[in-house]
Amino acid sequence: MSREQEKGKQEKGGLNVAKKVVVAVKASKEIPKTALVWALTHVVQPGDCITLLVVVPSPGSGRKWSFPRFSGDCASRKSHTGSNSEQKSDITDSCSQMILQLHDVYDPNKINVKIKIVSGSPSGAVASEAKRALASWVVLDK
């Protein structure tokens, strides 16, 4: 292993431990990829794991998020659980497509990228997920 690669790994009992990186973005019509690309090009090494954490504000937060499928009169008539499930599906599809488009930035066989969608306040959700994942790095978008 080169000196550069060793620098990117944490030593624990003489064994290299893969870094766990959480990249947090706010849900919107188009999921921003700047923070993810930065983490892929500046932080991770082969064997590391990135979790793309997409934070959707909780329903009581007062913020409105608009997704193309949910605009208009039909959206207001959908049940809350149905729209939430469809919203998560739309976000997952959008993130998956974005990750597929990044094949020139990283090798999916060497770096594991996961997508996780959470609801809540951005600061609480990101901190909670970073702690749960025992993240070495947390990269925030904006």
UniProtKB/TrEMBL annotation:
InterPro entries: Rossmann-like_a/b/a_fold. Coiled coil: none annotated. CDD domains: USP-like (cd00293). Gene3D superfamilies: HUPs. PANTHER family: ADENINE NUCLEOTIDE ALPHA HYDROLASES-LIKE SUPERFAMILY PROTEIN. This is UspA domain-containing protein. The lineage of its organism: Eukaryota, Viridiplantae, Streptophyta, Embryophyta, Tracheophyta.
